[in-house]
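From the shared-data thread, chain only:
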Amino acid sequence: MERKVTIYGSDYCPDTVEAKDLFEKNKVEYDYVDISSGTAPLAKFLKIRDTSALFDNIRGKGSIGIPTIELEGRYYLFGGAEEIQKFIDGNKLSA
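Structure, as tokens:
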């Protein structure tokens, strides 16, 4: 059974581009919400970010918090490519 993965990010963000590349390299299908493509995607992401305790530290720093990965209704933040790869491997998302 395929698991639903969504990446929230922006193509202007190098960390988002890196995350997408890792998912593609590992043949993980995902939906992508480009928060810089319009007000509706940005509003959708900000509603998540502004109501989840996961982002408390991010909001405190004045950061955006992308890329954010959603897997089956849970949200995850990462400190770089190595952590994202561990997430992909640990959740057995690779094809």
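The first strand starts at residue 5 and ends at 9.
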